[in-house]
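Troubleshooting entry. The earlier prediction with zinc ion gave an output that would not parse, so I re-checked the input for stray whitespace and re-submitted. Clean input:
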Amino acid sequence: MNIFTDYEHVIRLGIFLSLFIILAGVEFLFPLAKRKCSRLRQWSVNLSLAFIASLLLNILLPLLAVGAARSASEHSIGLFNMIDISYATAVILALLMLDLLIYGQHLLMHKIPLLWSVHRMHHTEIGLDVSSAVRFHPVEIIISMLIKMLFVVIFGIPAAAVIIFEVLLNGLALFNHSNLKLPRTADKFLRKFIITPEVHWIHHSEAAKETNSNYGFNLIFWDKLFSTYRDKPAVDYPLMRQGLKEFGTEKPLSLYKLLILPFQKV
Ligand SMILES: [Zn+2]
């Protein structure tokens, strides 16, 4: 456990980069749709956004969610730290609760205009690929972290659950944003449990009613439970338009335009 704790950041970065490279290779071989812009352009913009966001996070909220969980546990703060519950049960419950939290948070990002002005940047991608998983405005990343830290402290979420959840979330986000056409049977089987690329691509469709569906990131269960699940797009994937009409769906936006986007009136 000590080795894992000491090298946690390196291990997590290693898992992220390995998955990124594997999925980039597979989406190159089996694309769901033709690329809309060069890899160099898309990756440099999206990875720069991720770098800026993680830099700001470490400056503004250096404790992060894992630190908040450890601190809550040391001071016996939060529901799971106060009640008699086995560690394993707390971890499993916490994983489900965190997944429901990000489902609800994502839904609110679409429904509340102020939050949408921040989240819409993620939806300006005109053609998803594996790098779109990290295309979030730094302000959204900071808001998400604040919500998660608050949630972790209130419920006394175990640090192990936070780490497992973040690794799963990053991994599945890379997977379901990727431009990857899975064999029909594999997609059909996987989407019984998790969000597959075909499911998440519908959320990135230019059509508003499709954007306002499939809010989940990991488990598909929440979308089905709250009737926000849509199983196929009106226009098939190779022809589907992605992005937001107000920012154009043909030309990718520059890094500067993306960074000022939440502060712009449309
Ligand atoms: Zn969204």
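This one parsed fine. The chain has a mean pLDDT of 93.
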